[in-house]
Structure formats: structure tokens, C-alpha cells
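Appendix B: a complete holo record

For completeness, this appendix reproduces one full record from the ligand-bound portion of the collection. The bound molecule is zinc ion. The inputs are the chain sequence and the ligand SMILES; the output is the full three-dimensional arrangement of the complex, encoded as C-alpha cells. No fields have been trimmed.
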Amino acid sequence: MVCRRCGATADLDGGVLSEQVAARAAETGFVPDHTQLVVWGLCGRCAAAAD
Ligand SMILES: [Zn+2]
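The structure of the chain with zinc ion bound, as generated:
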């Protein structure tokens, strides 16, 4: 995740999503070779400051 105000980043816990991608890939025979998920928003500090 990337804060669009200050640029702070936080890793996503991709466990559930990764499992869903792997399960769907197995169902369809798709062979993913690259996954990129970027979530933009406000970090906790900026969200608090925005109020
Ligand atoms: Zn921020």
C-alpha cells in the first residue's frame, strides 16, 4: 500500500489473495508469471491529519 500524500508504504499481507489467485490459476490452467497489486490511499498518520 502506498500513501498518496506522504509516500509511506506498507506491505500487504497477501495470504488470502495469493491463495485465491493460485486456486483460480489451478482451475483455469493459467500460469501467472507476474503479480502486482498496488493499493493507493492514505496512511494512518495522513488519514488522521485529514480530519
Ligand atoms: Zn501518509
